[in-house]
Amino acid sequence: MDENESLTVTLTLDNDEELECAVLTIFVTGGQEYIALLPLDEEGGNDDGQVFLYRFHQTDSDEPTLENIEDDDEYERAADTFDEWLDSQEYEDLDLDEAPDAD
Asked: How many structural domains compose the chain?
């Protein structure tokens, strides 16, 4: 996959509506993998900034599966780790944007 190409998944909601989401990152905390998804509108954008976090499982032989995070403490751990990742991404963008010009 090209670095600039975004990976998307389609979620089927409880009401059978399908929602296209961009994969922001897959991360590990507490020995468990999680995935952060950004819901996309019809134009491929996201105006509200809402992010979905799910437990993530994938083995070599089957499709990836997502599970709802039911436990509040587990969700907090996953959300904190995602926030740290997000902060590091913003910092990296800031470093690139504010790099001094070489003369």
From this structure: 1
Query: Stretch 70-75: mean pLDDT, rounded?
Result: 96
Is this model's pTM higher than 0.85 or not? no
Other beta carbons within 10 Å of 37? 22
Q: What is the pLDDT of residue 43?
A: 83
List beta partners, residue 67: 55
- Tokens standing for residue 81: 């780790």
Residue 63 CB neighbours (<10 A): 7
50 lies in some domain: yes
Beta strands in 1-97 (DSSP E): 8-12, 18-29, 32-39, 52-57, 65-67
In this predicted model, what pLDDT tens digit does every residue of 8-41 receive, in sequence order? 889 988 899 999 999 999 999 999 999 999 999 8
Residue 80: domain span: 8-97
